[in-house]
Amino acid sequence: MTEVKSPEVPAPPAAVPDELTEEPGRWGRIRPFLPLAALAVAVILPYSTLHLPGIFEGALNSPGTLQLLAVCLVFGGLAAGYDLLFGRTGMLSFGHALYFAAGVYGTDILITRAGLPLWQAAPLAIVGGTILAGLLGAVALRTIGIAFAMVTLAFAQVGAILVARDFGGLTGGEEGLPLDVAGLPDGLVGVANTVNLYWLALAYLVVVVFVVHRVSGSPTGRVLAGLRDDERRIGVLGLDPYRFKLVAFTLAGGLASAGGVVYCLIVGGASPHITSSELTLSLLVMVVLGGPGTRWGPVLGGILYMYLDHRLVSFGTSDAVNALPAFLSRPLSQPLFVLGTVFILAVYFFPGGLASLAPRLALLRDSLRPGSRRQG
Amino acid sequence: MDAIILLTLTGLGLAALYFLVASGLSLVFGLADVLNFAHGLFLGVGAYATWWAAGNLPGAGPDGLGFVVAVAFGVAAGTLMAVLVELVLIRPLYSRTIEQVLVTVGLSLAGVALLQATWGADARPFPRPAWTREVTSIFGAQVPNGGLLLIVAATLVLGAILAFLRWTRYGLIIRAGVENREMVTALGIDVRKAFTLVFAIGGAAAALAGALGSVYFGTVSPQQGGSLLIFAFIVVVIGGMGSVVGSAYAAVAVGLLQQFVNYYGTSGLGDICVVALLAVVLLLRPQGIAGKAVTA
After folding, report:
1. pTM, to two decimals
2. Which residues 6+ apart lie within 8 Å of B197 measured at CB?
3. B107 shares contact with chain A (CB less than 8 Å)
4. Which residues 48-87 of chain B have a CB within 8 Å of chain A?
5. What is the C-alpha to C-alpha distance for residues A138 and A127, in angstroms, rounded to an integer?
6. Which of A308, A370, B90, B102 has a CA 20 to 30 Å removed from the CA of B38?
């Protein structure tokens, strides 16, 4: 068998010719290092005793502030994982809370009820949540579009009912299940060790961002983007949309369960409200506010949303708001009212979310600066 | 035997509640492709408006004719709310399905929070006519009158919607629009007026469900709509999106299944059976019982 080989054609140079590349400004040169700088700041932040009145209640390294930051970081990671479904693959799942709750309740039950140590319980919970996502995804993905959203919503509702009705006395029902600290390593127990939980949450966020970044940059990620834009075309190209979507769904479910494990450790237990569909809806809000399909948008959206959700409560009861007339001060005391309204406005006026603000502002700045880009 | 009759009738009462919420959802989804998460808000608005009217509106009260006036006020408030939502929020995003879903999600979050801010998060006792607290004896079963009221109301609404779809010009446009919206537009009919109308019908039915459901439960709370909404979604998907009759069948199936399993099995098992039914229907017949066609 002879094989006809075409002569090696040298590939065209990948580099853009010098005259076409824009001279990177000082800002452009710094930009790629910004995430690393942010990470470095986040890592050393617990050593700071800085007081930021109005932004945080205590000093930066006080346990209360660190716990709030840790919750924010976990939700930043969760939003990034959810974006793998919504922003990058175009799947509108209303059941993401289920896999997060699987991680939270899985860890809690294995440690508190079964008496396992953390190093066994955490991997088991993550593997269990991933398998659950794979199985339910295999059923739910037989439908598409809105029906898919409904089926995932219904599955998550079953999870919420199972937890709330307390079948078998495992979940503690409406009261939730406090975590038994006997199964935990000493470094994660007690108020003084909140800083370790903070670093754990930061590590989770870094892992999720890394995984999502690697997946979306891989050939699989390009297929997922293709599914988002035109599913039929992917099918015509001979690829199986079902299989790729199942991979994305399972991966996102696994990431959510891992987040659940970390969250369970941070708040020291599980409560039934994390199984509700509102949690999934708030993930959706985070992603859309941050900017779906972008690298940092969902992370920022998640962190900001959780921060506002916590801080708006004290803002709503502050003197400045109480001084307003009742028809203003009462709605403002509800964080969800403020966030929901901001969300609606964002859908209309900032479809790209926070991530699109920088290019928009740059555009505005350029048009205001006379003579900067007039040669074209 | 008593237990079976009682369970059947209370199951039908639940089914009536689901149907009132699901019929509007189904029409809105069938015609305008809007998955309306704010539908639970219309229910809440209807319930709170009725509650407010019974205490404050002159001529309205918790009893007799005054109660009818109060419910009418609640339904009017729900309808107005639905029409405003359609005109102000949904219409600018016409044919952008995901954004419409997002807006209704935001609206449901903000709206429920607003209800909570105004009237508090706790359930409030609902003013209801004395006779709705009593029971009627039917073949030896003591059936609560509130449930019977729901069944009667839902049957009337079903009849009214079907008659409207069957015998009026706008009903014809809606039926045609559910079948093929582009064709209706191509014939020179402004289908957006039909959208507003469908939202109004859905809002009115949901507000009625809110008012009568609160009579049935005896209390009113901001979260009431949200918990009903998930089962209403399930009813819509099982019944087939866009079909009012399908919603009615599915509501009866879901209501009865839930009541009987919850009674004879463990509490909560009925809810899970409903989801199992949804999974089975979707796997065997993804378009639902009645498919995407309004049959009148």
Report:
1. 0.83
2. B170, B174
3. yes
4. none
5. 16
6. A308
Residues A208-226: tens digit of each pLDDT: 999 999 998 899 999 999 9
pLDDT at A54 over 80: no
Give the pLDDT confidence score for residue B126 in this predicted structure: 80
Question: Residue A327 and residue A314: Cα distance in Å, rounded?
Answer: 18
Report the number of distinct structural domains present in chain A: 1
Angle formed by the axes of helices B191-217 and B145-167, to 10°? 170
Residue A234 lies in a domain: yes
Question: Which residues of chain B have a CB within 8 Å of the CB of A351?
Answer: 99
List B220's β-bridge partners, or say none. Answer: B124
- Nearest C-alpha neighbor of A154 from the set A281, A277, A252: A277
**CATH number of the domain within which A318 lies:** 1.10.3470
Name which of B113, B102, B226, B44 is nearest A313 in CA terms. B113
Mean pLDDT in order along chain B per 10 residues (296 residues): 85 92 87 84 91 81 81 93 91 81 88 85 79 77 83 92 91 87 88 89 92 86 82 87 87 91 82 86 75 47
Asked if residue A194 is part of any domain, the answer here is yes
Partnered with residue A270 across adjacent β-strands are: A177
Query: Shortest CA distance to B287 belongs to which of A107, A199, A147?
Result: A147
